[in-house]
Design brief:
single chain; 474 residues; FAD/NAD(P)-binding domain; Enolase-like, domain 1; 3 domains; seven-stranded mixed beta sheet; five-stranded parallel beta sheet
Amino acid sequence: MSQHFDVVVIGAGPAGYVAAIRAAQLGLKTACIDNFIGKDGKPALGGTCLNVGCIPSKALLDSSKQFHNLVHGFKDHGISAQKPAIDVGTMVGRKDRIVKQFTGGIAQLFKANKVTAIAGFGQLQAGRKVIVTTPDGSTSEVTGTNIILAAGSVPIELPGMAFDGEYIVDNAGALDFQDTPKRLGVIGAGVIGLELGSVWKRLGADVTVLEAMDSFLGAADADIAKIARREFDKQGLAIKLGAKVSKAEVKKKAVEVTYTDKEGEQTLVVDRLLVAVGRRAATKGLLAEGTGVQLDERGRVVVDEHCYTGVEGVWAVGDCVRGPMLAHKGSEEGIAVAELIAGLPGHVNLDTIPWVIYTEPEIAWVGKTEKELKDAGIPYRVGTFPFAAIGRAVAMNETAGQVKMLAHAETDRILGVHMVGPVVSELIAECVVAMEFKGSSEDLARIVHAHPTLSEAVHEAALSVDKRAIHKGN
């Protein structure tokens, strides 16, 4: 006999577990099905983001930054240490403890909100029925008045370069190296490639990033990408653009990578190879025949602006639908859908979702790039301000980067803000708020910002739109 719920969520990543908690808060009897198994062999909530994505990568980025500063950066502060060393096993163990803390935290939140957690792979059947297959192969059935598909995404494998967990790895494998590889190859200069490449570069690896595109960080504003590239070059992160990889073979405990660039066919030999060419919706096996739910050409669940599939009572959120594959986007969609199910308003503005890359320096942006505005024929004005002229940044010895603000030439409404520099992952929030409230550069220019803070770069960039920045020439 099947259990019946008001809401059944398939997937316990940032989109799914948040949707389940919000639905339960609204008084709906809720279940959340997930098949992720942690390193200890037990079910673990939180999806890719918490287990092998956002959270563990930030733990390693912080550890590697501390070590890099000890070796290279603290001398300017008069701080010295004798023969600094890092125990990679201890660093990875710290990462694992943080992950376990948060997966356990979600379990506690489920318990507190009376969400029923079900371990196993959920497949939607016709009539809002879900068959759950557990790791041991047994099955059970649940039904829901509403179903929320939050299956997430998985790494894309390149043909002939299957992940082996040791030499050719995905993001999960690159988070679990037990020692620093002497030579690390990375295919893909996106968020994952740059972040994990930075981790192991700081710890002493010789890192080469192969990017098939001819432009660097094509999704970011060109000026910001240019500054970021310059800083990565200074750090010794070798980034090769227009490098199309054709094969990778494991030979004598190394990986031989063959790629083609403008100079012809090239060979790169590395000790480990991280394949980070993007992710695809994890919808394989998610839908049985006859559900009526449609997939697009990229395997994503087709939804409208309210994340509704068009099939009565069936919704989809997060990485398995259109829009950016970002944890915070998925979470907000999960909340919106739970509220819509409960008869409340629910909406996510895809135009004001912030992007962040947690390299050193950090990169963040929201809204349109300058190229997008030009291509659309939208008149705009630009304001910029460098962190090198910000007292707090100089005191921190982190002066690389700038803030760039784009505002409509006629209405002054903020159309996009792009940053590269220290802690811009936090600074971007102010700009998201301003854009959500239809704010202008004049609004940000007139808001008092504390001194000395990094946020003054946002203030001065807003002033610069009107050519009245105080601490730089206009």
